[in-house]
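Hypothesis: this fold can be encoded by more than one sequence.
Test: take the structure tokens below, design a sequence, compare later.
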């Protein structure tokens, strides 16, 4: 047993070592990929901060140049006016532009007029002032003891009418106003001058810290304000400079460092981007990969263990399958016999349904037999009378009158033939698939069958036939049975109604043709049950019916792919609507 466990333990240890190495590789790859994304974003953030700074300084530079050409300054430099006259003008400009101070300085460096009552500052010897006196725009940055804050200084020369420089216009820009738009934002951004001292930043703890190590004495800053930079250790990760920083809670402990030279303002912009999200993302990717590998290894180990067990079970299962196969073969034979029996039963059911439809038609013919007999007996009697009269007129030598009687006999014979032909067509059992049928001809044939009963019972049949045929998909005989059943039901429902009117109309609903049959009877008591088999509203013993007519009609219309519905009409009575697929006249032709 111990011999078997030792190889298995070695396999497990080797697998765990491989998973650890693979997860470490995934972590490194994910970390480097995340650093690449951080590098792109950091470059964008640093470029945006630099553009924002230079744009803000450009505004003050243009202010100095434009104000130096103000028409009120030259008279003051020439002694033609007083400083109190110019001070309101400079004050208005400073208020509108947000400048810290605007002052006019004479060639000796003394302030002639200023917008702020700050202690007098001697500008003599300052680089920005000397450059302005040379006729160019001077620029510098410093910490002003007079104002107690950092400032950017722009000095523009003021030229006399003759051309020489008579003084300088100095504009002080408050650095804190420039920083206000992005102070505290991520990531940490700072700008250091050529001496390595950080002059402005969105982290106040970095201001006046020297990037070059021990602070050097600078004329622009007080010696007691400049401090060494925060402690950090540089490192390279796949070509990216990553610092380990010890700078307090407002600076990242590990950061990606980037620098951008800004020669226009004589500074270098730098950014510190926290790499903790990149490390977390890489760790998450490595953890997911390790988890997937461990799960896969565990499943593989369990599968290997179960393989032997399954091999033993497989043999036993095969024996059971053979036994079960024999049982299923026997059951299959039984199912085949049952299917054959069900098929025979369905055939018998279909035949019974067809017989039921035929019985319904014959029942309808039986109910109308009295009216049909009267309709046939009347022309027979007239034929005999006209035949006797024609013989008498022939004996008297009046052949023209006899010919009229013979014509009447021929017309009545055609009428009887038409009635008998409709009855034979209706009584015929139809088993053909749906075809193109003229709906108008079907309705006319049905009305000719029910006309005797309508005349006997005083029922008006309203039917405004269209001038052209209306072709639908259906069976001619079965469609006649449906229409006859709806008309007969309407006539049965109006036994005690006054007036007695059956209205038939043909319409269109989209791609379908509709035919509606409306009566003026009492309506339908339970519309939701009218198509149920053996449901009937007729009184016992009245107009014999088994409640199958509408159920049979429903099935016939469904076999055409159509629909039938019944409802009560708002003006009284019931209305049944049959929808059938319409056939275009050119297609039917």
């Amino acid at each position: 047993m111990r011999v078997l466990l030792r190889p298995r333990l070695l396999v497990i240890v080797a697998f765990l070592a491989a998973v650890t190495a693979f997860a470490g590789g995934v972590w490194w790859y994910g970390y480097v990929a995340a650093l690449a994304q951080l590098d792109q974003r950091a470059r964008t953030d640093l470029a945006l901060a630099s553009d924002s700074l230079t744009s803000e300084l450009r505004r003050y530079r243009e202010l100095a140049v434009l104000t130096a050409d103000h028409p009120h300054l030259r008279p003051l430099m020439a002694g033609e006016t007083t400083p109190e006259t110019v001070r309101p003008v400079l004050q208005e400009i400073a208020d509108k532009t947000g400048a810290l101070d605007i002052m006019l300085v004479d060639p000796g460096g003394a302030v002639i007029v200023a917008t702020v009552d700050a202690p007098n500052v001697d500008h003599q010897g300052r680089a920005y002032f000397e450059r302005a006196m040379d006729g160019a725009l001077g620029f510098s940055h410093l910490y002003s003891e007079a104002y107690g804050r950092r400032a950017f200084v722009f000095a523009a020369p003021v030229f006399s009418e003759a051309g020489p420089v008579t003084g300088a216009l100095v504009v002080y820009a408050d650095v804190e106003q420039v920083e206000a738009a992005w102070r505290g934002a991520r990531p940490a951004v700072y700008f250091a001058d050529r001496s390595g001292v950080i002059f402005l930043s969105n982290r106040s703890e970095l201001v006046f810290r020297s990037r070059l190590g021990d602070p050097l004495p600078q004329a622009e800053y007080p010696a007691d304000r400049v401090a060494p930079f925060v402690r950090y250790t540089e490192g390279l990760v796949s070509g990216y400079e990553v610092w380990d920083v010890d700078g307090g809670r407002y600076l990242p402990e590990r950061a990606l460092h980037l620098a951008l030279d800004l020669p226009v303002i004589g500074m270098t912009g730098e950014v510190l981007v926290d790499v903790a999200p990149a490390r977390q993302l890489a760790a998450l990717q490595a953890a997911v990969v390790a988890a997937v590998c461990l799960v896969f290894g565990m499943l593989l180990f369990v599968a290997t263990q179960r393989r032997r067990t399954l091999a033993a079970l497989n043999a036993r299962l095969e024996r059971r399958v053979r036994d079960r196969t024999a049982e299923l073969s026997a059951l299959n034979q039984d199912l085949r016999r049952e299917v054959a029996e069900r098929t025979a039963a369905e055939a018998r059911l279909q035949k019974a349904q067809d017989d039921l439809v035929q019985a319904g038609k014959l029942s309808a013919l039986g109910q109308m037999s009295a009216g049909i007999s009267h309709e046939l007996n009347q022309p027979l009697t007239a034929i005999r009378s006209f035949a006797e009269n024609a013989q008498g007129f022939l004996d008297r030598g009046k052949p023209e009158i006899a010919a009229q009687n013979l014509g009447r006999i021929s017309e009545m014979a055609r009428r009887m033939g038409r009635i008998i032909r409709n009855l034979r067509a209706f009584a015929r059992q139809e088993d053909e698939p749906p075809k193109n049928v003229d709906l108008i001809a079907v309705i006319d044939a049905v009305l000719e069958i029910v006309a005797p009963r309508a005349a006997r019972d005083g029922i008006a049949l309203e039917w405004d036939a269209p001038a052209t045929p209306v072709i639908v998909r259906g069976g001619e005989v079965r469609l006649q049975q449906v229409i006859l059943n709806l008309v007969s039901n309407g006539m049965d429902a109006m036994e005690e109604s006054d007036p007695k009117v059956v209205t038939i109309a043909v319409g269109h609903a989209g791609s379908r043709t509709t035919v509606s049959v409306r009566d003026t009877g009492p309506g339908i008591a339970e519309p939701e049950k009218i198509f149920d088999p053996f449901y009937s509203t007729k009184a016992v013993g009245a107009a014999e019916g088994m409640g199958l007519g509408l159920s049979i009609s429903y099935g016939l219309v469904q076999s055409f792919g159509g629909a039938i519905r019944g409802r009560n009409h708002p003006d009284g009575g019931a209305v049944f609507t049959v929808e059938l697929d319409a056939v275009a006249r050119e297609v039917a032709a």
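The CA atoms of residues 437 and 476 lie 6 Å apart. The longest helix spans residues 276-367.
Hypothesis status: open.
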